[in-house]
Amino acid sequence: MLRLTEVKLPLDHTPEALRAAVLARLGLPGEELLDIHVFRRGYDARKRNAIQLIYTLDVTLRDEAATLRRFPQDQHVNRTPDMAYRFVARAPEGFANRPVVIGVGPCGLMAALVLAQMGLRPIILERGKAVRERTKDTWGLWRRSELNPESNVQFGEGGAGTFSDGKLYSQIKDPQHHSRKLLEEFVKAGAPEEILYLSKPHIGTFRLVTMVESMRRTIEELGGEYRFNTKVVDLDIQATADGGRQIRGVMLEDGGYLAADHVVLAVGHSARDTFAMLLERGVFMEAKPFSVGFRIEHPQGMIDRCRFGEAAGNPLLGAADYKLAHHCKGKGLEGRTVYSFCMCPGGTVVAATSEPGRVVTNGMSQYSRAERNANAAIVVSVTPADYPDGVLAGLGFQRELEERAYQAGGGAYFAPAQTVGDFLANRPSTTLGEVVPSYKPGVTPTDLAPTLPDYAIAAIREALPAFERQVRGYARPDAVMTGVETRTSSPLRIRRGESGHSVNTRGLFPAGEGAGYAGGILSAGVDGIKTAEAVALSLLGDIAQA
Ligand code: FAD
């Protein structure tokens, strides 16, 4: 097969036009083209009135070698790469040394699946509940202001991405096509087939719940074992003869102990108690940058019209998204960037705290993306210079802002909200306009300025008019912002070496978003696959090479 990239056709092209475009592109008569498979479909909407679909196609030809010879320098005509996933090792029958996976978000889930597929029968420890029970607790916060600190949007089977838009794209480099492996596993577990070819696929929250359950069944059938309501509270790390450190087991909250010398640590960015424990145990970590800000909501129809013009509503385009960035120029703001993050078309803003007395916002959507409002985080970059007091200072910084938001919201997990008009005019909101905020349990119109540091407020005030120039209506006076968005990525990195082990603790494999190696469902899952490979090579390296 040959792969053709950048094949462009108008949005309303006929099915036959695809075949005609391939023949024209390759200069071939019809009988030479045996088959066309769409590998990827995206769109270019930079010209609203001439939106184009952009295809990557795998074509089967009668004589592929001859065609390739005619396009020697053409980077858009190549052999289709081999993207098949190959396991790095396989455990022999009865192999007794079972790895432990802590946390079953996208990273732990993919790590556990691949370990199970290699015959390593992982034991999965998850502090939260199985996904159905967890869903009830999550709704408890949204409907009744009742937070369960161990079972919520952040904690429980499926991890932080379960109640989300389920966007499955990322800008990670992926030379070994690990993301293909993830997407294929997701489809086997019930995700729509289109995630394999859309350039910006999403699943929506309902489907994620059933997929996570289906993947659990697969892992269990392969000999893996899940333990829910099982928080790891300590690590058994022992000195080695060469002066190093080796993990020997994990301590559980219920007093239990589990021996293990290969432990995947995939705890996500909200496991603040676990980070404190790791610091106490001397596991090497360092503070890293992240971002803080608000969620902003606009009518989805406005975003659709602005991005797609007359083509708004076309089912091939779906609900429009956007991606914005502004490099600040104001005095004292040099080096700060304000950007949109985790945009959820046709979705809702959700309460995403895992700790009592704190308010955190995030966003989610259903597969249909049919809700009235578009929402996205508008966040400002912050660095350890903004929270200089040690490795855990970023957590303290997040907590303080989340507490300020709780106070400003008036309690009961209401979020503080302000219209863009009032925010830019530096006056508190007392009422809201046409854009009705979707955050549950509810919002309190107020002044958002006290919830973030002054520089962050100044940066967002500078950015909103710049965003208005890119998306007309973005700074409309009745667009609503709710606060605060603090859990954008991990405020620290648990450093690992080339072979995946922690740099100072052998057998501990920090992975995923919490360890600072991923940001989003896809990249966390890919990191899980890579980590499973590192664990298998460490456990079975000699066998794999034999
Ligand atoms: P997590 O998903 O955070 O999983 C960590 C798991 O570890 C949790 O289940 C937790 O309970 C468990 N755990 C923690 N500590 C312990 C312990 N001590 N013992 C046992 N278990 C423990 N990303 C996207 O790409 N697309 C989106 O559309 C998207 N939307 C989002 C919407 C929301 C509301 C949220 C909160 C996040 C969203 N994200 C999205 C981000 C995405 O969810 C995360 O990047 C991803 O889940 C990180 O995966 P992870 O496996 O590294 O960590």
TrEMBL record:
<dbReference type="Pfam" id="PF21688">
    <property type="entry name" value="FAD-depend_C"/>
</dbReference>
<dbReference type="InterPro" id="IPR049516">
    <property type="entry name" value="FAD-depend_C"/>
</dbReference>
<dbReference type="InterPro" id="IPR036188">
    <property type="entry name" value="FAD/NAD-bd_sf"/>
</dbReference>
<protein>
    <submittedName>
        <fullName>NAD(P)/FAD-dependent oxidoreductase</fullName>
    </submittedName>
</protein>
<dbReference type="InterPro" id="IPR028348">
    <property type="entry name" value="FAD-binding_protein"/>
</dbReference>
<feature type="domain" description="FAD-dependent protein C-terminal">
    <location>
        <begin position="289"/>
        <end position="488"/>
    </location>
</feature>
